[in-house]
Amino acid sequence: MKVLKFGGSSVGKPERIRGIVSILKNYYASGDHFTVVFSAFGGVTDSLIEMSSLAAAGDDRYGEAFQAFAKRHQDAISELLPEGSLRTETATQIRKSHEVLKNLLYGVFLVREASARTMDYVLSFGERSSSYIITQTLKSVGIPAEFLDARKVIRTDKKFGGATVNFDKTYAAVRKYYSEHTDIQIVTGFIASAKGGLTTTLGRGGSDYTASLLGAGLDAQAIEIWTDVSGVLTADPRRVKKAFTIPKMTYAEAMEMSHFGAKVIYPPTLMPALHKRIPLYIKNTFEPDFPGTKVSEESSDGNTAVRGISSINSVALLTVSGSGLFGVPGTSARLFNSLAQSGINIILITQGSSEHAISFAVKPDDADGARRAAEEVFAYEIDRGVVNPVKVERELSIVAIIGENMREQPGISGRLFQALGKNGINAVAIAQGSSELNVSVVIPKEDENKALNALHEAFFLSDSKTLHLFIVGVGLIGSTLLEQVKKQNAYLRERLGMELKIVGMSNSRKMLVDVDGIDIENWQEALNNSGTDADLAVFVGRMRDANLSNSIFVDNTADDKIANYYEGILDESISISTPNKVSTSSSYAQYLRLKALATKRGVQFRYETNVGAGLPVISTLRDLMDSGDRIRKIEGVLSGSLSYIFNNFDGTKPFDAIVMDAKQKGFTEPDPRVDLSGKDVGRKILILARETGIPMESEDVSLVGFLPEGAMEAASVADFFSILKEKRTYFQELYAAAATEGKVLRMIATLEGDQASVGVQAIGPQNPFFGLSGSDNMIVFTTDRYGERPLVVRGPGAGAEVTAAGVFAEIIKIGKFLS
Ligand SMILES: NC(=O)c1ccc[n+]([C@@H]2O[C@H](COP(=O)([O-])OP(=O)(O)OC[C@H]3O[C@@H](n4cnc5c(N)ncnc54)[C@H](O)[C@@H]3O)[C@@H](O)[C@H]2O)c1
Ligand SMILES: N[C@@H](CCO)C(=O)O
Ligand code: NA
Question: Where is each ACT domain found (predicted)?
Fold first, then answer.
C-alpha cells in the first residue's frame, strides 16, 4: 500500500487536476495498492476563512464570496466530468453540501461569531468538496475510486483549530475501514473528528499529516507527497539559482530543513511516518517521472556531509551580559523562564564559556517584549551594575548548514566561515548543537542572499564557482578582455570549474547591471541598448546593493576619479583588478589605505598590468621581497609606446608619424602626452618603488622630459600632434646626435636606494637596453641574490592582447583565492 497526497497549488486548476488524474491512472494500471489524500483546491481554505470572518463581522458581502466559492466548484465539475449522470450526481451532491455551508454562514452572520469549533466545520467544506469531485472524476475514467471523509477514521481531542490526534484510535479505525473497503480510497486531508462526531482540523500542513497518519496506520510501504516543486532542494531556489534536488535525506535532516522554512514538508507530518520508518517521497506533479527526494533512515551517499542550506529571514538578537552572570547557577533558568512567561519563542541561543554573556535570537516582533522580560528579571542586578542593560540588535538573519553526518567530518565549520569571510559577511553569533545536525550563524540581514549563495557554492559546487564581474571601461583593453573571456569561458568551466558572469558593464556613456548576467556573446549590443546613462556612483551603488558572492570590480579606464571609489568597493569586500595606474600612483597614503583595506576585508587588490602590462613585473618583485632578497637597483624601459617609438625612429620616418603609429597600435595611453611626457613611466617606477617599501610620492621622481618647448602646453591631442609635426627637425636632430655616436635613444627609469629618475638617454651597444625591439619592455632587477647577473624580465609591455590577458589572469587568480 502506498499513500499519496496532492495539495495546494497542485490542485489549483482543473488542468492541473487532469494531470493528477493521469498520474493516478498510471498507478492504477501498474497494479499498486494505493490511497490518495487531497487538500482543498488552491486558495479555497483562505476564501472560507474570508467568508466566515465577513459573516462574523455582520458584513453581507460574505454572500458574494460564498457564490464565488460555489461557482468555482461547479465549474470544476463541468470541466472535469463528462456530461452524463455522473456529472449530474456530482453537481447535485456538491450543491446540497454547499447549501449546508450557506446556512452555516448565515448562522455565523446572525450570531456575529465564528468560534474555532465553527471554523473547523466551515473549513471542512474545502477538503470535502475537492476530494469528492476528484473521486467522481476518477470514476469517470474507470478507476474504482471511493470517497472517504477522514472524519470517519482520524480521531482527535477537541482542540479546535489544531487538534491532537489519538494515534491508537486512529490507527485502529484506519485499519478496520480499509479492510472493509477495497476500492481506492480518496481521502479528505486536514480534517478529523472528535467525540460526538464534532469536526476538527489538524492545523498547518494538515493534509500531509493525514497522509502520514494513514501511512502509519496502514503500515504503508511509502508515502508520497506530491507538490509543485521537485522535492526538497539544497537551498531555496528563489534565492539560490543553482539549488538542486536532494536525492536522499534522513528524517532528522528533513526536519531541520523544514524548521528553517523549506516549505515543502511540515515537520509534525513526518512524526507518524518516522515512528514506523516509512520512507517518504517528495514528488513534483509537473514532472511525475522525476524521482524527487526520498526521506528515510538512509542518508545521501554523496560526498558532502552537508545536506542543505537554509535561512531565517528576519530575527533580532538580544544579549544579556555582565560579571553578575559568571558562576551563578540558575541565571539562564531565570532568563528563559521569564521569556517563556511572556510567551516569547527563542530561535537560537549562545553562551561563551566565560559565562559573561548570553545571546538569543527571537522574531523581530518579540524583540521589545523579550528585552522587557529580561530587564525585569535582572532588574536588581542591572541596578547594581553587575548586569548590563540588554543589548538588542535588529535587521539580522540566520543562515544554517544542515546535515546529519557533519559531526563525523572535520573542516565543515572551517569551510562555512571561510565562505562567509571571503565574501565579507560578518558572523554576529554562532550556534551549533552538540548533535551537529545544524550549524547556525547570525548575520546581517542584507547579506542573507549572498551568504546562501556563497555557502551553497562552498558545500555543493566546489567544482563550479561563479565569479561576478563588474567591468568599467570597455575601450581597447576592456573590449579585448571581454572577447578573451568569451573565447575562454568553456575552458574555464571545464578545466577550472569557474564561470565568469558579467553582471555589470559601463563605458563613459552608458551602463548596464543585470544580476542574472549579461549575454557576453552580444555585450556591445546589450550595452548600447541600455537605457541607463553612465554614472559611476550609481554603478558602484548597484554593485553594492546586488551584494553578490565572489564579486570583482575591473577598472579598464584611465579615469582619475574612479580611484576615489576603490576604498568603498574594497570595504564592501569586493576585489579589484585594474590596469589603471591612477590609484596606485596617487598619494602614498591612499596606496597604503587600499592595500590595508583589501587585507582587512580579506579580498584582493591587484594591478600587475600597471607595470609592463601582462609581463610579471610586480609579482616578480614581490616574490623577491617576500623570500628575503634585497633590491639594490631597478632599471627599466617601462613604456611600451616609447620603446616602440624609439625602436622605430631610424631617421627614415618623421617622429610624429611613428607616435601616431604607436597610438594606432594601442600602445599609448588614451592621451599619448601621458606617455611622451614621461609621466606614465614616472608612475610605473613610483609604483615599483612603493612595492619595494619606499614611501615615495610622484614629485619625488625626478623626471627629465625630452619634448620640445611648448609641446606639453598643447590644448588637445590633435594640437599636440601638430606641434610634433612642426618640430620634426628637433626630433631629427635628437636622433642624429645619438646616431653619429653609434647610439640609440631609450627612455630609462631607474630606482636606486630611494632615488627614482626617468629620462631619455643615448646608449651604446654594450647597454642591455640597446637591443630592444617592437614594444618591448625590459626590467632589470639587481639584488643581493641576483648581484653579479641581474634578473631580467623582458617582452612586449603594451598592447591590447597582452594587457587584457594580464587582467584576465588576475581575475582568475582572484577567483582561485576566493574558492
Ligand atoms: N593600452 C595598453 O597597452 C595598456 C597597458 C597597460 C595598462 N593600460 C591601462 O589600461 C587602461 C585602459 O587603456 P585603453 O588603452 O583600453 O584605453 P581606452 O581609451 O581605449 O579605454 C578606456 C575606456 O574607458 C572609458 N571610460 C573612461 N572613463 C570612464 C568612466 N568613468 N566610466 C566608464 N567608462 C569610462 C572610455 O570611454 C574608454 O572607452 C588605462 O588605464 C591604461 O593606462 C593600457
Ligand atoms: N601606455 C603604456 C601602456 C602600458 O602601461 C605604455 O606605453 O607602456
Ligand atoms: Na605587469
Answer: 320-397, 401-479
